[in-house]
Structure formats: structure tokens, C-alpha cells
Fold:
Amino acid sequence: MKNYYNKKGNFDNYWWISPEIVPKESGVVNLAVANRFKDYGKLKACVWKWYRSQVNRKDISARNKLILWSLAERFRGQSFSVWDSYTYLAMTIGISRRIFSKGMGELSELGIIWIAVEGEERLAFKKLPQQKRVKKHIVLVGLNNVLFEDLNKNQSQ
Structure:
């Protein structure tokens, strides 16, 4: 699991993991919340809970629900994002890269995901720029809320 989880809590390259207070409809994950999830299984359970909350939406097509499934499946605790290539993610659900990219644009427009660029500067796109090589991460909007609720639920039990 070492490739999937950041046990040291070093999130310096990931601007979307921040000590700031996080608004509900944000892709940012609070640093304190991120550091509390040392168990990858619990983190993945929260990602699947986030997925189930999105899949019931009526404004998302069946194709885009499959795209969300691939994102939940490939979510990494190392960066609290998905950083696989569009080609690979498209292959996991049996569609072309072009169709996958179109769906990602639609999900981004709906505010369900952010397409973030790794580094200190806060850069996020609705669609990846053409002919520009960047280390992109797909961030799940609202995941911080699910993580925070899970922490509170476990504290009260």
C-alpha cells in the first residue's frame, strides 16, 4: 500500500491539502483531517461514500457515473487525488480517451471534480490545456466533508 497512502503526512506538493478552513463545495482537504486518516481502508470507505452521494444525482449521465466509479476506484491517499492518465482511466471502464475527457469536462463544469496541477501554485482547470505537459490530479469536491463527518461519527461512538 505504500504507493497508495502518504503515512508521513508530507503534502507539500499538493496545494489542495491545506490547513485552511474548507468550504463545503471545495476540492480542498483540511490538513488536520488528512493527517487523521492513517488507515487506507477507512479513507477508501469515505471515498466510496462520497461516490454513492454523487451517483444518485439526476444531472449526471450514465457515462459520467462510470467515470466517477473509475475515479473512486483509483483514488490515492498519497495525494488525496487521482493521478492516473485519462487513457488508463478510460480503459478501466471501456470507453475512448476522447469520450472520457469530454465526461471529465462535464463533471468539472458541474463542480463535482477539480482538475488540479501539482505544485505550490494553486492551479485548477475545467479542462486540461492542449499540448501542455503538467502533473495533473483529479480532486473530489466535497470529500473533506465526508472525511470530517466520518471522524466526528467515530469520536462520538
Remarks:
- The chain has a mean pLDDT of 86.
- Helices lie at 31-36, 40-55, 62-73, 86-93, 97-109, 143-156.
